[in-house]
What we know:
Largest sheet: 8 strands, mixed
Distance between the termini: 29 Å
Strand order of the largest sheet: 2-3-4-1-5-10-8-7
Oligomer: single chain
Order of helices and strands: EHEEEHEHEEEEE
Amino acid sequence: MSLLxxxxxxxxxxxxxxxxxxxxxxxxxxxxxxxxxxxxxxNQLLSLGxxxxxEIIAPDPAQTENGHRAEALARLSTPCLHAYCLRxxxxxxxxxxxxxxxxxxxxxxxxxxTRADGVQLNWEILYFDAPExxxxxxxxxxxxxxxHPATTAPGG
Length: 156
């Protein structure tokens, strides 16, 4: 089982101003990304290397169904460091080890989106259910063989 840093999320109440401000501060404009159907969020990405990326994530005004993350993002007054994600090739073992250590987990959640070039990305995520840890714990992702977003996001 592998565990690697996959991406860092900056949360924002509104995507476009957050991306504009980020680009003004860094001279690099995140792009790509897209909507997360059923979760109420959308994002833009910036590659930090071959298999690591930076994500600006915000509520998606085109979606009427909002998940927990979309609701938390909508309450933000300004963009801020929101979360981080570790990549694994074995979410089931991560879940088993967390439970054995006394940390609750959610059921794995299957997600997907289609890139602008038509490529379908499929992944599975796992959240830890440990309110006492807050955002100190990452969430987990398994890309299920999909191309890693860092390979197509602009670099910076």
